[in-house]
Write a sequence for this structure.
């Protein structure tokens, strides 16, 4: 099977978020779930995407962490379509369909820049109980005074459920030191993938700086998360911070020395709210994997 390593949400190698991408031979079905998980664990990336070709512009992609399959992964999707372009299997200007466990999603590629549909956004709940909020911030190792918060944490999904956790400043964001075991337990209890911490303390032209933690899936911290930043875009809209049609530029991965740039779009003007997430990607390596 063809195997590639792709750095997503960046224009340079060793930036962004790396993903493994495995292209199944024509006509081949997916390996067993156990083998996919073991492969992801062997590759040691937060997610590995397995691509099945269904047509010239139609694909089925499954996503595996080193611990389990997940419904959708933004950076691995960006990486997958960058890999397909690199292999000459899709054009630099086209529209494709990606069949995922989160639904059938449209992928728009324009001059090599990849924009992907998110699953329909969903507000699961708002954390308004003071004891629950205190527990969350204690687990996350937050050291600032919670009275500084002007926004409440919310559980939101655009393909994967996460807790959107606001912090006042970039210094507060950088200072977070989660208790990973406690965060895994909390994620299990709330039935979320993890916590997406963010601050709106940003320079002009940047909407937010973010950090993402998902130790329940063996991902202590991730350098770029498309689904989580899609959820953050919906969160900002729900809080009146984005217009019905708006765009965001989100920076993630700085604490990991892998700065990533994630662009998002929202269209909430119609009956259904549509969110897209996009970015660039670069190929780091390719070869054959024997599984």
């Amino acid at each position: 099977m063809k195997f590639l390593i792709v750095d997503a949400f960046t224009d340079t190698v060793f930036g962004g978020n790396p993903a493994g991408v495995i292209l199944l031979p024509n006509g081949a079905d997916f390996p067993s779930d156990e083998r996919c998980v073991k492969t992801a664990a062997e590759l040691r990336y937060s997610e590995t995407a397995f691509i099945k070709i269904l047509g010239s512009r139609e694909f089925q992609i499954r996503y595996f962490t080193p611990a389990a399959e997940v419904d959708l992964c933004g950076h691995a999707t960006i990486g997958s379509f960058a890999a397909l372009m690199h292999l000459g299997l899709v054009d630099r200007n086209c529209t494709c369909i990606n069949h995922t466990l989160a639904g059938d999603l449209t992928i728009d590629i324009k001059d090599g820049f990849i924009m992907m549909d998110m699953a329909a956004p969903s507000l699961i709940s708002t954390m308004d109980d003071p004891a629950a909020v205190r527990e969350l911030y204690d687990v996350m190792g937050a050291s600032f005074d919670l009275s500084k918060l002007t926004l409440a944490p919310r559980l939101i999904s655009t393909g994967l459920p996460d807790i959107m956790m606001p912090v006042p400043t970039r210094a507060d964001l950088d200072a977070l030191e989660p208790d990973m075991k406690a965060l895994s337990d909390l994620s299990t209890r709330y039935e979320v993938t993890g916590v997406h911490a963010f601050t709106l303390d940003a320079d002009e032209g940047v909407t937010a700086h973010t950090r993402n933690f998902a130790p329940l899936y063996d991902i202590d911290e991730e350098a770029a998360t498309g689904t989580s930043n899609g959820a953050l875009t919906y969160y900002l809209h729900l809080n009146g911070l984005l217009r019905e049609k708006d765009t965001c530029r989100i920076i993630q991965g700085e604490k990991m020395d892998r700065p990533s740039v994630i662009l998002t779009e929202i269209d909430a003007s119609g009956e259904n709210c549509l969110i897209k997430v996009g970015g660039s990607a670069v190929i780091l390596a390719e070869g054959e994997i024997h599984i």
